[in-house]
Amino acid sequence: MKRTLYLLAAGLMVSVIIIGCSTEDPYVVDAENPLVMAMVSAPDATTAVASNSSVSFSWSATGGSGEMAGYRWYLDPMETGYNTATNVTNVTYENVPGDAADPTDYTFRVIGTDSDGDADTIVAAFIVSATVDPDPDVTAPVVTITSGPAEGSYVATGTSIAFSWTGDDGGGNDDMIEYQYAFPTVGDVSDWGPATSASFNEVAAVDPAEFRVRGRDQDDNTSDWVLVSFVIQDATILYIDDYLFTDADGNNDMPKERDQKQFYRDALAGYAFAEWDNDVSGTPELADIPAGVEVIVWCADSEIGTADGNYRLWYDIGAEGGGVLKEFMDAGGKVLLTGTQTLGYMYDSNPPASDAFESEYLGVSDSLI
């Protein structure tokens, strides 16, 4: 291995002052009472030290006269000879350079001398490299699904589903991870890529529907698949929103309308439900209700009705001798009436007819009006 000599230069500091240097070792050990030097700490001889790092040494002495006259040392090839004796037992070298083309061998020598003139020398060797290769990364990233249908929940066919996920490779850097996902509507698994979300439209019935995702880091460590399993089936619940909220000036209050819709969507999350918007599609007829629907959630929230003057259309949904809700319940369906205007709906016919929805299913009679 190449050995390169370095002179102590500006910016390269030693923690003690070196006054004079000599490579001669004039001391002889007394065999009857030998002085024994020991290296207490030094760089690991089996691992290269990164270039421009600091390296430290410390040592101790036993035996001899028991009184030390001093210690002398030098670091080869950064120094060319021993320093003048001093009583310190440690030294640190700053910014120790390495060779970019070939690691550099370093040898540190220290001589201890006692008051009787006995001496002992110890040596520590190490390597300085321009770069130190890190330990190989053998740990796969951890992937977590953060949003999407809940485990074991139900999703209605024909709706849209969105998933998102995160990954952690130990350094908190998602950008260094690629992902691959699979879903029944995709067929084969996706290509690897940095995306952390995916959505699927007009999903078909699947039981179970399993969404899987895994991650791969830059060292090709690949995680196990993580998955969420749920059921996609025809809707069993129909959420009906009557008409738009309006403000004090008669204008559509869209923020309030969005909040109201989101409230019911959150409440029904995890169930296979479909939506019907009266403001968009008009009051539904029995034929408009999907065949698999078992429950209607009718949200009576609007205070005004439609822009063309129709007032909540309670007659249309609970008319004398019929109406969509009455027909639905007669066919075995269940109805949940909710919203701030539910009671107001009942007064559109005052008093209600004996065969009206209010009388037969809500118990509203002449005596209660």
Q: How are the SSEs placed, and which strands pair?
A:
Blueprint: E1 35-41, E2 49-50, E3 53-63, E4 68-76, E5 90-96, E6 104-114, E7 119-129, E8 142-147, E9 154-156, E10 161-168, E11 178-182, E12 197-200, E13 206-216, E14 226-233, E15 237-241, H1 254-268, E16 273-277, H2 278-281, E17 295-299, H3 314-318, H4 324-330, E18 334-338, H5 342-345, H6 357-361
Parallel strand pairs: 2-7, 9-14, 15-16, 15-17, 17-18
Antiparallel strand pairs: 1-3, 3-5, 4-6, 6-7, 8-10, 10-12, 11-13, 13-14
Question: Any key phrases for this structure?
Answer:
369 residues; 18 strands; four-stranded mixed beta sheet; mainly beta; 6 helices
Nutshell version of this structure?
The chain is mainly beta.
Low-confidence stretches: 1-27, 305-312
User: What best-fitting shape do the alpha-carbon axes yield?
Assistant: rod-shaped
Number of beta strands: 18
Sheet with the most strands, sense and barrel status: 4 strands, mixed
Radius of gyration: 42 Å
Percent helix range = 10-25%
Strand order of the largest sheet: 2-7-6-4
pLDDT averaged residue by residue: 80
> In percent, how much strand structure appears in the residues?
25-35%
User: What is the element string, with H for helices and E for strands?
Assistant: EEEEEEEEEEEEEEEHEHEHHEHH
Q: Which structural class best describes the helix and strand composition?
A: mainly beta
Distance between the termini: 105 Å
Q: How many helices does DSSP assign? A: 6
